[in-house]
Amino acid sequence: MASPCKPDDPGSHREIQQGGIKMVGSSTAFGLWGRAALLAVAVLGLGACGEPKAQDKQAATEEIKPVRAEAASYKLLRDRQFYPAVIQPRYETPMGFRVAGKIAERRVDVGTVVEAGQVLATLDPADMKLNLKATQAQLRSSDADLERTRQELDRYNQLKTSPAYNQSVYDQRLSAYRAAEARSAQLREQIRLAQNQIEYTELVAPARGVITATSGEIGQVVAAGQTIVTLARTDELEVVTAIPESRIKYATEADKVGFTLWSDPDNKIRAKLREISPSADPATRTYRLRYSILEPVEGLQIGMSATLQLEKLGAQRFVTLPLTALYQDKDKQAVWVVNPQTGGLTLKRVEVVAYGQDKVRIKSGIDEGDLVVTAGVHKLDAGQKVRIYGAPQS
Fold first, then answer.
1. Segment (H or E) for 160
2. Domain spanning 66-76+316-388: which CATH class is it, in words?
């Protein structure tokens, strides 16, 4: 059968089916009217031959998908760990009187801020004052004996050239003088001790701080050294946290330490490890770590909540990519890599070592500088042509 796109030779016969009537004849027999009809049919056939196939038309109009891509770069990343912590004083001292007695006054309560030298509580000093007076009286008597023995020794010493002089008697008087002298010296020290005991009836703050506990009330008779108040010094505060034993090595190797207060999370403050508890807590099986604060912090108070951040440079190199770059390939994680010359896609399986809130850390599977698709990965196919969004068009 002749192709509709190629008309028959002028001398050939052609069958025309029209309105159910079959017409057969030579093209020359149609006359002018027949030739016009044949010309119209030929034009329509040629028009149909000029239209592209549907398959070719779809391929011509298919759009190359734009994608976002990011160059893979392996880096030694800083590993970070975070722990809840609390601000505590380095020195929290239970304080008591150095002498026994009855509490006459307590001038502070829990939460009272005190300065160095401020009196916190006092004992009734009556007994100490009586003891001081008695010792002073004994000293006056001893001084009188000392003067008497000194005069007797001097008088007898003048008899050395006399036949009445006896060396044994001289030695006895010299010994009595020295005993009286020692007795007076002893009583003088006892007076100083009695004076100190009167001073000890006042409980004085050794440094600036805040009272965190009280355990003595007015009228209570207390023994020497019994705790009356607990003073937390505010001149040196620390950050205290507890970590499991598996993280102790990391804490000792951290090369960068800081903390932020919950009330001011944007202000990071430097700190330094000072002490690791030698034993674990019997209930939580964690170890207590204390960190010194290396810079002044305005408004820092005991008991504030904080977040301790430990950092150190890792030994393994990683690529960090957006979490949206991951593609699930059966039971493995993979990423799409774009060929920058052809725009083709290659699916590469990767080894993921850590997931973040919106980032993923990849250990291996891609090469340095690979252009990794970071969005819309589940709408792509292998071998598909793409162009990088924002890249210049060729």
1. none
2. mainly beta
Q: Phi-psi bin for 47: left (phi > 0), alpha (psi -120 to 50), beta? A: alpha
Q: Which fold has domain 97-120+205-231?
A: OB fold (Dihydrolipoamide Acetyltransferase, E2P) (2.40.50)
Position of tokens 């003048």?
Answer: 158
The separation between CA 110 and the C-alpha centre of its own chain, rounded to angstroms, equals 31
pLDDT tens digit string along 41-53?
444 444 444 444 5
Superfamily of domain 125-200: Helix hairpin bin (1.10.287.470)
According to DSSP, the β-strands at 345-349 and 332-338 are antiparallel
Residues 158-210 have pLDDT tens digits of 887 788 888 888 889 899 999 999 999 999 999 999 999 999 999 999 999 99
What lies within 8 Å, CB to CB, of 162 at 6+ separation is none
Please state, in angstroms and rounded to a whole number, the distance separating the CA atoms of residues 5 and 2. Answer: 8
Domain extents for the chain? 13-60, 66-76+316-388, 97-120+205-231, 125-200, 232-315
The pTM score is: 0.58
